[in-house]
Amino acid sequence: MRSRAFALGSILAVACGARTDLGARAARGPGEEICNGRGDGGDGLADEGLGEAGCGLGACRITVPACVDGVSQTCTARQPTTETCNGEDDDCDGAVDEGLPFGLRSGPHLIDPQLSYLAYGMIVPSSAGFFVAYGTGFDGSAPTPNVHVARLGPSGAPLGSTEVLTERLMPNGLRLTRANDGWLASYCGRFGTEDRAATGLLSDAGAFTEFGLRPPANNHCGAGVPDGAVTPERLLFAFVDNSNSEVWLDVSGLNGQTEDHRLLDERGDYRSMPRFATLGARTLLTYSVFDGERSLLRVHRLRSDGADVGEPLESAAPGQPAGFRDAALAAGAAGFVLLAHDEAGTALRIRFDADGSVLSGPEPVDALAGLAQLAFAAAAAGGFVATGAAADEIAFAARLDEDGEVTALWRSNSAPELAGRYLAFPMVAAGGGSVLYGYTDIALGNEPPLEVIELGCVP
After folding, report:
1. pLDDT higher than 70, residue 23
2. I need a surface site. Which of 268, 398, 409, 455 has the fewest CB within 10 A?
3. DSSP for 124-139?
4. Edge-to-edge strand ranges of the sheet holding 358-364
5. In angstroms, rounded to a whole number, what is the distance separating the alpha carbons of residues 237 and 139?
6. 426 by DSSP, 3-state: which?
7. Going by C-beta distance under 8 Å and a sequence separation of 6 or more, which residues neighbour residue 172?
8. What is the pLDDT of residues 422-446, one digit of tens each?
9. Separation between Cα atoms, residue 421 and residue 444, nearest integer Å
């Protein structure tokens, strides 16, 4: 499939409360439901499935039914207030707690005292605080359960003991995506003597249910960590087959049963593994490919059913022939932000609107220069959070606004508690006023601990 280069779109400056996605719906084909009081879909139901529309950012944001009695609804956002230290975007400018001191609140909190060298995993918000799932290292010659879960309080301190998630071995841990009744788990698991791409469901109670292998059945995935997405219609799952460098997309029903799978590219290069983000009816998928000379970043715009919208986009890292590494996507209130870094450690940002069209980038993010590893996530209160390990062994954590601009930055060398530590394999999540940074302290040798620190606005 031929790709086109990233093109820059216009950037609009909008006051708080003025952003709205009421008119942002894509053109509909024949037979699709529109807001007119009639049953356009031919099923006898009028205006069904049109959902909600939202406007405003942060504390100003509200949602309204998109259509009532055949009439499209007007959305009027709340009014902004003064920014205070509460984990909310009070002044509705797309940034949380900006202008307030940002630093270490508590920790390090010990989650696992002894890993087998490394831990890949994720921290995700939960009703009681946070939830972390991670791999503890992998030894195929002496297999023992290596995937664990722990519940964390709002500060990142563990609530109870860490538990084994599943007897299924996972060479490189797993990734979690919020689903209605838990989290979609995407992983590379050991099946017999082979590593195969698979998915499952992790319930809110911590129980794990396997959905099974993803086709093709003879895939190999031990070189990386796959990712998944939950759309209103489907479960999406993407991975790189390390036996042939092919990148695959699996489209499943909400029950985890595969309905379709297709080859996305034959050039997967492992510098950036597949990563998803979903906003409404649009999902973006990114991964890196090698064109024979350099690593390029590829982005697919997908519908809720997993079908491509237009051709994939491709881009090279500006001024860096070796290309991108560690790209990560997150969806905000009004669009998507992609963060990545190149081989020289330059942090790069690409901004997309809610439909997946490029607004700007790739462009450098000077505040995050020196990156060697990256974790990136949306913050429920607005904007984004990022953590990472730098080449100089000084880690960072940052809050970003809805446009991906850094509004608060913390570095580990500012905390005496972390002197001499190397905060590698970063994880990040934001909930309430807290940002949790999970890491493996590889400065402590081949069996390091897994720890979590809490960051946020401080006096």
Report:
1. no
2. 409
3. EEETTEEEEEEE----
4. 324-331, 335-342, 347-353, 358-364
5. 26
6. strand
7. 120, 135, 138, 187, 188, 222, 224, 225
8. 888 899 999 878 899 999 887 766 7
9. 8
